[in-house]
Inverse folding.
């Protein structure tokens, strides 16, 4: 009370709420007025921020925390009363008639879409010191994830204009959710690269705030161990993206502008945009309010399982069950073996890759009710079996894929399954952990993430008739991977199957030891036989025909050890580097028609 005069009236109200909510310990220790006054005010500025950035404010946070902590202490199963079963969804096969039809529908719809990248996580499992979106997706061209995502959105926008003959020429909004851990470095990366060619007005950064830590089962907020005038905070999870989009006013702005879809995606999946046109086409054709992208999942793989949950009272929903919960849920509901592969060699539950496509109208209606709050969970690490105290403070967390949990049964919730080779190759695990992944399960490392790009591009070229050499098996950082020819292209060259098909003709072959980098829109590959390295770059106005026989020493892959700190971190986490020996490299910087007959 003696210190109250230090605070503005609205913060005095907050102080009262804190007292009522059993949080007096936050300021009981305060010395007389005149001592540390600025620090006391700073604590309340923080309290005000924590209060305004959480739907329902701090009172609601503490109340929910008490309930969830009590449930956790009682060992309550969050799926009590629900029986899991395998849901049915849309299964797509790359390149068949159905796939091509969905791709076209998706490209058509793309100009009515907004893209949202959640990139607030530091990626503790990967242990990389930088931000993950700055990592090279592949080291043949060195393109980083963020550049690839931006170029993919721009390519999609361009393709959409073309297909609809410029019916509407909207710039696709691109939102990046950052956090205090990633914000300034993400901005720097964009600024120092001229936003990778996107208009600055098109990119919107939304920063998520951390949430207050909890020190005990009564949900007493934890003071920072290093500063008694600050509350300790930790990340709240990717689920924050919904409340941030809602409170920023972007959703209604988009609706007023005529947009129809919001696509969410994660920070390190270099394959994702190969799957986006078709899955957006599925959303549009099937009129899904929610469409999750999925891939076949190996049992116990660290990706959630898409599951149908049916309650004893008749309710049912199709929802992601997180990887650590699927096994116990199955065991508790009459599947004594838990999360195991079935006769296909995969788990019967499709794997969630956390790529969500939401229809904007129903999304806004739902958020008007919830304010964007997502069902949370708590995961305290208890000191002992009495579950009365924690080893370290905990906090509430939420996941973006839990959005459907509050939807009415009438909501159209679906999912689209694609081949893993086409759609999913995240970079999440550090070399040591990746090397320990059971044989046959994906590594999800920088090594496998890069090799997956080459494999996908090779398989796509095979599908359009190119003879691509068989891969060889090699071990990098203790992980055995398939090494395909290092084929890369810009999104504007080959965004869809039809695009690639249009650009490649005649009889073409590429040997396993080859590298091919296509960096231009109108490059046509015709009767090319490649055994070595070929790099072609062109401006949009140039039309280049590439053919003939290219043979040179090429670019080779050299092993490096991840423990060798003389090698840059982004290289050594993949266990190899590319050494350029000899290549045919051409750059067409003027518009016009060109013929490169090697
Ligand atoms: N992220 C944020 O933006 N803010 C945060 O506070 C936390 C994360 P992880 P996770 O596809 O493989 C998810 O850590 O959470 C961003 C799904 O839950 O890489 O362990 C972060 O920057 C799981 O069902 O993944 O697991 C990153 O872009 C499964 O689908 C994204 O959120 C799994 O991903 C994911 O964060 C997967």
């Amino acid at each position: 009370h003696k210190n109250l005069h230090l605070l503005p009236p609205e913060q005095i109200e907050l102080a009262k709420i804190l007292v009522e909510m059993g949080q007096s310990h936050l300021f009981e220790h305060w010395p007389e007025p005149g001592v540390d006054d600025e620090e006391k005010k700073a604590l309340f500025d923080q309290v005000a921020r924590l209060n305004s950035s959480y739907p329902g404010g701090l009172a609601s946070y503490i109340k929910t925390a008490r309930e969830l902590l009590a449930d956790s202490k009682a060992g309550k199963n969050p799926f009590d009363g629900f029986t899991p079963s395998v849901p049915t969804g849309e299964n797509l096969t790359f390149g068949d008639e159905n796939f091509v039809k969905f791709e076209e529908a998706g490209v058509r719809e793309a100009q009515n879409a907004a893209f949202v990248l959640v990139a607030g996580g530091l990626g503790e499992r990967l242990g990389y010191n930088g931000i993950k979106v700055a990592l090279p997706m592949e080291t043949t061209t060195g393109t980083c994830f963020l550049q690839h995502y931006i170029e993919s959105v721009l390519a999609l926008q361009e393709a959409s204009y073309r297909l609809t003959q410029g019916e509407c020429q909207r710039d696709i909004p691109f939102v990046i959710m950052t956090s205090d851990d990633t914000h300034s470095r993400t901005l720097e990366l964009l600024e120092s690269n001229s936003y990778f060619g996107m208009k600055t007005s098109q990119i919107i950064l939304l920063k998520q705030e951390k949430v207050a830590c909890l020190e005990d089962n009564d949900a007493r907020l934890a003071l920072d161990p290093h500063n008694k005038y600050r509350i300790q905070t930790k990340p709240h999870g990717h689920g924050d993206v919904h409340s941030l989009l809602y409170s920023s006013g972007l959703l209604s702005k988009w609706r007023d502008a005529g947009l129809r879809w919001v696509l969410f995606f994660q920070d390190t999946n270099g394959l994702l945009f190969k799957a986006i046109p078709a899955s957006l086409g599925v959303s549009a054709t099937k009129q899904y309010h929610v469409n999750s992208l999925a891939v076949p999942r190996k049992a116990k793989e660290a990706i959630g399982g898409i599951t149908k949950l049916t309650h004893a009272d008749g309710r049912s929903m199709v929802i992601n069950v997180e990887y650590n919960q699927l096994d116990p849920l199955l065991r508790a509901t009459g599947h004594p073996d838990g999360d195991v592969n079935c006769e296909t060699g995969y788990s019967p539950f499709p794997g969630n890759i956390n790529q969500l496509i939401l229809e904007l109208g129903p999304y806004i209606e739902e958020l008007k009710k919830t304010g964007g709050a997502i069902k949370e969970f708590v995961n305290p690490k208890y000191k002992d079996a009495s579950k009365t105290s924690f080893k370290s403070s905990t906090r509430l967390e939420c996941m973006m894929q839990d959005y459907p949990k509050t939807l009415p049964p009438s909501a159209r919730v679906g999912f689209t399954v694609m081949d893993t080779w086409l759609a999913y190759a995240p970079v999440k695990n550090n070399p040591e952990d990746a090397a320990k992944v059971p044989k046959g399960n994906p590594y999800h490392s920088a090594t496998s993430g890069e090799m997956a790009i080459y494999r996908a591009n090779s398989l796509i070229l095979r599908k359009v008739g190119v003879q691509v050499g068989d891969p060889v098996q090699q071990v990098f950082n203790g992980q055995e991977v398939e090494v395909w020819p290092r084929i890369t292209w810009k999104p504007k060259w080959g965004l869809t199957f039809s695009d690639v098909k249009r650009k490649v003709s005649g009889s073409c072959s590429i040997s396993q030891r080859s590298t091919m980098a296509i960096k231009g829109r109108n490059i046509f590959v015709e009767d090319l036989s490649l055994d070595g390295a070929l790099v072609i770059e062109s401006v949009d106005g140039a039309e280049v025909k590439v053919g003939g026989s290219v043979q040179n020493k090429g670019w080779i892959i050299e092993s490096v050890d991840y423990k060798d700190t003389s090698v840059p971190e982004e290289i050594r986490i993949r266990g190899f580097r590319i050494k350029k020996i000899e290549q045919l490299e051409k750059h067409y910087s003027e518009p016009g028609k060109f013929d490169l007959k090697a």
Notes: Residues 118-121, 123, 177, 179, 235-238, 266-267, 303-304, 320, 322, 352-354, 399, 401, 426, 428 surround UGB (CB under 6 Å).
